[in-house]
Amino acid sequence: MNAVPKSNELYDLLAPELRLELAGYEEVKTVPAATRLMTCGRIPAHLIILERGSVEVLLQTANGMLSTVVNGGGKVFGLREALSGTASEADIVALNECQVTLVPQRRFTALVEQHPEIYAALARVLSADLRIAQDLLRRAPRRSSSAKSK
Asked: Which residues, including other chains, have CB under 8 Å from residue 118's CB and lie 6 or more apart?
């Protein structure tokens, strides 16, 4: 078990004892560039915490492919999928060598069931993700009506 849990957008909102419990399930990996961390259409087996490096998040929309880059610093991927039991709607690919921390989804969901107070932290993280997605969609180019009819 890690003595001091790392800082990330989820752990920073949790009580210390919950952070320590999650830290006990962590697996830290270094992955090379071009590693697919999440695949659209598949249910991820782990929460993925980006500790170091950069990833590209690719999302298919009605207007084409949207892409954004996320740089290290504790971004957590897979929360929505863990809570809903649904497949990822995005591909997440390492742009360079990345250090990631993996937390098994089944361990995470069991902890949430045992400690419903975690839902408040999850709501904050997922709300922030929604704001980012809305901003990305606002900035995305839109197809003109003439392009759609061709």
From this structure: 14, 18, 111, 112
By CB atoms closer than 10 A (0-12, 13-18, 19+), residue 6 is middle
Please write the tens of the pLDDT for every residue from 5-40. Answer: 578 999 999 999 999 999 999 999 999 999 999 999
Tell me which CATH homologous superfamily contains domain 11-134.
Jelly Rolls (2.60.120.10)
- What mean pLDDT do residues 32-57 have? 97
Enter the tokens of residue 22.
């999650």
Closest CA to 58 of 91, 95, 88, 36: 91
Taking each helix axis as running N to C, give the angle between helix 118-139 and helix 105-114, from 0 to 180 degrees, rounded to the nearest 10. Answer: 120
